[in-house]
Amino acid sequence: MDKSEEFQAGHSQTVKERAIEGVHVPNKSRGERRRQEIPVRKSTRGLGHVYRPSWRDKKTGEIKQSPTWWIYYSVRGELKRESSHSTRESDAWKLLKRRHGEIALGKPVGPDIEKTTFEDMATMIVSDYKANSRRSLARLEDAVAHLREFFVDYRALEITGDKVTAYVTFRQDQKAAASTINIELAALSRMFTLGIRAGKMSVKPYIAKLALNNTRKGFFEWEQFSPVLRNLPEDLQLAIEAAYITGWRIHDEIFTRQKHHADLNGRGWLRLDPGETKNGEGRNFPFTARLREIIEQQLARTKELEKSTGRIIRWLFHRNGSPIKSFRRAWLTACVQAGLGTEIRSVDGKLIKKTSYRIPHDFRRTAVRNLERAGVPRSAAMKMVGHKTEAIYRRYAIAEEKMLVESADKLDRLHALDHHREEPSK
Fold it and tell me: Using CB atoms within 10 A as the burial measure, which of 42, 148, 229, 403 is most buried?
């Protein structure tokens, strides 16, 4: 017989004995007798218990008790206490039972989970990007700013799937592009991932991205690119032509090249070290005849500038010895002068802005198309341009009208050859 059975047996026996001895036993309700006969549940060591906090009033010395029930339990040896936010004892027991289930599943538990806010998540993701030296930090901060407009007063557990859908509608009303909204949703998803890893939250809502129909378009034929190139400033011409040939990203992969990345020995290579590319892998582009001329001309210009200024210039492409940070205005002006752009002016003729019909990123599409037309194997082309997967490569390997016509001509020649082989047998 355990202690609780002894307690119940002893208590019942005492009541019966008192009744037999003639001692008056007051009539009590069924509930009162049940509470009297059943002992208060005692906490099992390590599983916790429910209670109402009590304290002594400093002025009156009276002991007071809170009407709200609390629970306490242990997680990996750490004692945790949290309010049930209810005046009913049964609600506290339900909360304690739920916490035991979460602990058994290995989920983070505790009042800190419910206190985690959107701002806490935003701080975590910005710190993560800074710690890992992510080059897209500026883009992330812009995405977080837009998320903050909507979720600023939200706790993490309040950001559910329907709230995410409401955010998408909110951004669409602001005329945000679908690709922009997807970048912001990706940032929100990353916030939850980091929060779960840190034990600050237990669940992640379903975050569905928008379907995109943004197949890349736009090529630069040489006859279009040549006049744009001539209208660019001299310190940009060689760098932009190198980007046209290689298809490398201009800001991150062309302007960041230093002189030691150009290997003139043997065939010659233009190199990107591991960690410098978007996918983190190194890349080598073998010199074509024109690419070698570009690199040699640029090195000669740099050498002359070093002699005249007494400076050491480490950059392969530069602007008077300094890294090239931006060329947007020069690009727009060159495109307008080449007939691939337009100027928007006010009624009185004042220039408002310039727009171009081609963007530098068209170089990547053009380079992929040129490699395909030259018959370069896809695996080699992917390594030269820097596409890690065939899905991304196919996104850039767009079939344009001229290529389709050439393909039809090749098929026509094949059919003609087949007919020619059949003629002797007739």
Answer: 229
Q: What is the DSSP string of 202-231?
A: S-----PPPP----------HHHHHHHHHT
pTM summary value: 0.54
Question: pLDDT tens-digit profile of 28-47?
Answer: 555 554 444 434 455 455 57
What confidence tier does 112 reach under pLDDT thresholds 50, 70, 90? low
Residue of 261, 240, 279, 266 whose CA lies nearest to 386:
279
| Calpha distance 302→290 (Å, rounded) | 18
Measured in whole angstroms, how far is the alpha carbon of residue 125 from the centre of its chain?
A: 9
Cα angle value 18/21/22 (rounded, 5°): 90
pLDDT, one tens digit per residue, over 141-170 is 999 999 999 999 998 888 999 999 999 999
Q: Side chain identity at 53, as an amino acid letter?
A: P
Alpha carbons 195 and 191: distance in angstroms, whole number: 6
Question: In residues, how long is the chain?
Answer: 426
The C-alpha atoms of residue 366 and residue 15 are separated, in whole angstroms, by 97
